[in-house]
Amino acid sequence: MAKKDKHTLIIVDMQPTAFSSAGNSKTLTGCKRAIKKAIRNKNPVIFVEWDGKAHPTTSELTNLTDGYNRTFFVNKYEQDGSKVIVELMKRKKLPKKPSK
């Protein structure tokens, strides 16, 4: 068996009600491919949302992680969400190396 990657996949601002680019078919295809790879490799997936209660990530992506226990959501309330991402990764002890 091949050695699994130790990465965390971070999906940012894929909320079609807030960002029209989140509905771009090429972007969605790339995100879906990356999510499936992360799950296959047992890597965590973080969805970063701008006010996620008002603008949830598209279900085309979140449905792929239904039942996957290494899925996390974090809300950001300013453009730079790095602080909340790092806090979550530290709290959950997630791999710090980003997915390729």
Parts with pLDDT < 50 across at least 5 consecutive residues: none
* Quaternary structure type: single chain
What class do helices, strands and sheet pairing give? alpha/beta
Report mean pLDDT, rounded to a whole number. 90
* Number of structurally distinct domains: 1
Rg, alpha carbons = 13 Å
Number of DSSP helical runs? 3
What does this structure look like?
With 100 residues, the protein is an alpha/beta fold. The chain has one domain. The chain has 3 helices and 3 strands. The chain has helices at residues 25-40, 59-62, 82-92; strands at residues 9-12, 45-50, 71-76. Strands 1-2-3 form a 3-stranded parallel β-sheet, with helices on both faces. Strand 1 (9-12), helix 1 and strand 2 form a beta-alpha-beta unit. The radius of gyration is 13 Å and the shape is globular. The two termini are 20 Å apart. The model has no long low-confidence stretch (mean pLDDT 90).
